[in-house]
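Colleagues,

For the teaching module next term, I've prepared a clean inverse folding example: a structure given as tokens, and then the sequence designed for it. I'd like students to try predicting residues themselves before seeing the answer, so please don't circulate the second half yet.
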């Protein structure tokens, strides 16, 4: 057997940070570039997640620290329960929850204002592989969304969240704004919009 010597040790210095996986996206794209050029790929970067039972204020702090506008809400078993966005935290949704439940903001939980998985629509990775940035922009505009999730399937046919498209990221790479208008999809959402 070969003998191995121990590696030298040294103290950890103050203010040491941690490496994060990074996906290098091209700084500039056009609408004709492949859609993959603007997709955050969870095979290459870590998806930012949050527990459904933490406060909305904690979720807001996590978003600010991570410099993201969306967190995946995950179960203990690692299943997607929903999403929460910065618009959810700062907009009408949080205020309605606080008012309806008669609570203070500090008591509002992520589960109270997240968009549950039952209301999420996804795009197949098979479709993304042959799509262009223009297709993604058209999809976000047609759906009135700031984000679009992309799924793969495992060998058993179960969906696996593969990636995410974000208007803010696409706008940075295009060098121009991508305007989408949130569209109300249920009678309750339309009713709330009309009262505003």
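(Answer key — instructors only)
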């Amino acid at each position: 057997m070969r003998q191995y010597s121990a590696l030298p040790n040294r103290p950890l210095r103050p203010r040491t940070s941690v490496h994060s996986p990074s996906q290098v996206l091209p700084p500039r794209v056009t609408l004709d570039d492949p859609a993959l050029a603007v997709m955050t790929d969870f095979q290459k970067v870590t998806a930012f997640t949050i527990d459904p039972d933490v406060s909305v204020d904690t979720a807001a702090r996590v978003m600010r620290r991570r410099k993201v506008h969306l967190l995946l809400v995950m179960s203990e078993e690692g299943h997607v329960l929903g999403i929460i966005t910065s618009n959810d935290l700062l907009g009408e949704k949080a205020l309605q929850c606080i008012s309806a439940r008669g609570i203070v903001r500090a008591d509002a939980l992520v589960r109270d204002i997240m968009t549950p998985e039952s209301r999420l629509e996804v795009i197949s990775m098979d479709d993304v592989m042959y799509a262009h940035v223009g297709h993604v922009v058209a999809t976000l505009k047609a759906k009135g969304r700031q984000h679009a999730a992309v799924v793969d399937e495992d060998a058993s046919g179960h969906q696996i969240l593969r990636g995410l498209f974000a208007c803010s990221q696409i706008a940075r790479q295009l060098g121009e704004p991508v305007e989408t208008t949130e569209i109300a999809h249920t009678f309750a959402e339309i009713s709330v919009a009309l009262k505003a």
